[in-house]
């Protein structure tokens, strides 16, 4: 092994510029593979985190206006969703894990002992907290007893709490919602949220649905009508989304997603609209949005990886080139060694190890530099949809295996060429 190392160093000294450029190509290729893969993973996780600030796999359903006649009813009829619709979805669909009705009203005058503000107030059921990301920082969340007894209790968003109380203690304080007293039982952590359907949760106040229905019903609709229905599909429904996308026969916009069709079927029967009437209901399914963005990020990661591998392969060609030059320059040496009894296997092993030793140190150094760059970048403030440069073990293992493959591939051909030389021809060779 010492002989191999000494021979490698001698080759590097004899061809300094070529050796530097070759090793730099390998180093840069490894850096490219690692950094680009880590960047793609950071974007993927950052977007997933932002989506999950709203909630994980959330579906929001709003009533719309019919655009088709159905059951003797004219087109243009307004569809008003009710709490009974939410109960029907939970009862009749095996695709849905959790359902909650939601009431909302904006511009509600809210007063504390210290300040006042006009805020969004949302009435929610306890299971809503399983669908949406309502992470309690202090205090507690809603219990079913709060809903059953229509307790006038409230959970306050981070910015709303700061506006009403400043830095003071909030839990146990009383706030007036248009003159009606509610007790603060919890505050929500500060959320970095850019996906919402009625404003950021930081600026909202949440109260039990039953209390909201009693104190702040919708002014533009009959009693019992909700603002929207929030639900979450079962995991197996989300797991089938990629198959539905892959097996489509037309445009993405024309895909009939199974859960959406189920919702339209159940509510269409209850409200007498045609299931094919796409305007009767509006739906926002964040699991589909997550799937689409995930595909985009995977495509971006694949492109980055290919760019890195091509760069690494070009560096590998440089290694092969320098080893072929070394074989040519040492042709007479090969002839002498074979004449003295060196076997084909020994000659092949010698040149293979030389090429491999040229590749691996460069790749190892590139890997270390890439990890250092990722660490330094992660110390900086990150944009909303970027979680930093994250190297997964799969990407790390892929980079190492690719490097080893390039090393083996680019070392084998020159080594084989050297080993197959005939001693007589090698001894007659003139450089």
Structural commentary:
The protein has 431 residues and is an alpha+beta fold. The chain contains 15 helices and ten strands. It has two domains: 2-51 and 292-428, no CATH class; 96-232, no CATH class. The chain has helices at residues 2-14, 16-54, 83-92, 128-131, 144-148, 158-165, 209-215, 235-239, 241-246, 258-271, 286-329, 331-339, 344-377, 393-419, 423-428; strands spanning 59-63, 96-111, 116-124, 136-139, 153-156, 174-177, 180-188, 204-208, 228-233, 281-285. A six-stranded mixed beta barrel has the order 2-3-8-5-7-6. Strand 6 and strand 7 (180-188) form a beta hairpin. Helix 1 crosses helix 13 (344-377) and helix 3 packs across helix 10. The longest helix is centred in the C-terminal third of the chain and has 44 residues, at 286-329. The protein is elongated, with a radius of gyration of 33 Å.
Proportion of beta-strand residues: 15-25%
The helix/strand class is alpha+beta
* Helix content estimate: 40-55%
Calculate the mean pLDDT score and round it.
84
Rg, Cα atoms, Å:
33 Å
Q: What global shape is seen?
A: elongated
The description of the largest β-sheet is: 6 strands, mixed, barrel
């Amino acid at each position: 092994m010492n002989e191999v190392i000494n021979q490698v160093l001698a080759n590097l000294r004899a061809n300094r510029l070529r050796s530097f450029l070759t090793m730099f190509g390998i180093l840069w290729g490894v850096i490219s593979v690692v950094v680009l893969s880590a960047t793609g993973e950071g974007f993927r996780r950052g977007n997933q985190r932002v989506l999950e600030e709203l909630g994980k796999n959330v579906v929001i359903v709003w009533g719309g206006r019919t655009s088709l006649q159905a059951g003797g009813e004219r087109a243009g009829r307004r569809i008003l969703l009710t709490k009974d619709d939410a109960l029907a979805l939970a009862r009749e669909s095996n695709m849905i894990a959790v359902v909650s009705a939601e009431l909302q009203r904006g511009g509600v005058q809210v007063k504390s002992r210290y300040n006042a503000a006009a805020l969004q107030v949302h009435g929610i059921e306890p299971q809503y907290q399983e669908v949406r990301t309502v992470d309690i920082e202090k205090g507690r969340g809603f219990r079913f007893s709060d809903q059953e007894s229509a307790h006038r209790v409230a959970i306050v968003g981070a910015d709303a709490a700061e506006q009403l109380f400043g830095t003071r203690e909030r839990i146990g304080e009383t706030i007036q919602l248009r003159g009606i007293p509610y007790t603060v039982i919890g505050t929500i952590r500060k959320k970095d949220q850019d996906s919402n359907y009625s404003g950021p949760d930081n600026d909202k106040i949440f109260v039990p649905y039953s209390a909201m229905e009693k104190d702040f019903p919708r002014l533009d609709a009959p009693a019992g009508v909700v603002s929207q229905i929030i639900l979450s599909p079962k995991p197996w429904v989300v797991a089938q989304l990629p198959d539905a996308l892959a097996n489509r026969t037309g445009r993405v916009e024309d895909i009939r997603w199974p859960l959406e069709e189920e919702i339209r079927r159940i509510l269409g029967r209850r409200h007498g609209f045609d299931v094919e009437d796409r305007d009767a209901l509006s739906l926002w399914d964040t699991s589909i949005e997550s799937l689409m963005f995930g595909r985009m990020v995977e495509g971006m990661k694949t492109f980055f990886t290919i760019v890195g591998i091509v760069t690494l392969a070009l560096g590998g060609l440089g290694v092969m080139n320098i080893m072929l030059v070394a074989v040519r320059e040492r042709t007479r040496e090969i002839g002498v060694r074979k004449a003295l009894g060196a076997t084909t296997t020994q000659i092949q092993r010698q040149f293979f190890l030389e090429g491999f030793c040229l590749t691996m140190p460069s790749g190892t150094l590139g890997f270390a530099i890439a990890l250092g760059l990722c660490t330094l970048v992660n110390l900086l403030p990150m944009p909303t949809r970027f979680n930093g440069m994250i190297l997964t073990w799969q990407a790390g293992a892929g980079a190492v295996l690719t490097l080893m493959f390039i090393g083996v591939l680019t070392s084998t051909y020159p080594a084989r060429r050297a080993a197959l030389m005939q001693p007589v021809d090698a001894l007659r060779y003139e450089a």
